[in-house]
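lol so apparently i was supposed to do this last week
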Amino acid sequence: MKPQVVFVLGGPGAGKGTQCSKIVENYSYTHLSAGDLLRGERAREGSEFGQLIDSYIKEGQIVPVDITINLLRKAMEETMKADEEKFRFLIDGFPRNEDNMQGWTRVMEDRADVKFVLFFDCSNEVCIDRCLERGKSSGRTDDNRESLQKRIQTYLQSTRPIIDQYEKHGKVRTVDASRNVDEVFADVKAILDKEG
Ligand code: UP5
Ligand code: MG
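anyway here it is w/ UP5 bound
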């Protein structure tokens, strides 16, 4: 069975991870956060990419796709190997720029079907407030004002154009993510119930 993929995009702190967790509770999807995979690789003893990932994340820059795509591919393969019924994936926080898109096309286009992009639309102010609030306890090296400015810049310059490209092909399902978690999820449910 070819893996079925939903890309989950939106600004830093838009609620991608929160909503993906709720989707997993209610639907047969596996959640893969590209950011979490990169943070895991950064923490892995013996990783040759630890320092590079660390500095990219702090600077709000997008890690070269070869690293990210290998982590995603491995995670997908391992999931399906362990349970062949698990072929539906939420890929959260990827693709974020043109380099990511090219990497996906090169490595994954023939191995997986992208169904649509779930886009959590949220103002920069709300995104920043949520991340600063989370930063009080998250331990994330990028939940501070300085990194957040850079993350927002990168999002606007590099990721929005990717969302726009998918939009042109009618592939984007947009949710107003500035509301509370349950209100946002009600819209997510309506989309998933319709799209299958
Ligand atoms: N919260 C969530 N929903 C809420 C709601 N509706 N109302 C009120 N509060 C809400 O939520 C963030 C915070 O807001 C939480 O405290 C939550 O409780 C609250 P979360 O669900 O974590 O939002 P999310 O969109 O997942 O935010 P995250 O910070 O994870 O987004 P980013 O896209 O910035 O982070 P990510 O981990 O994807 O990437 C981090 C870095 O990794 C990138 O900047 C980049 O350097 C690198 N990266 C790559 O290089 N390549 C990749 O492919 C992916 C990442
Ligand atoms: Mg996240």
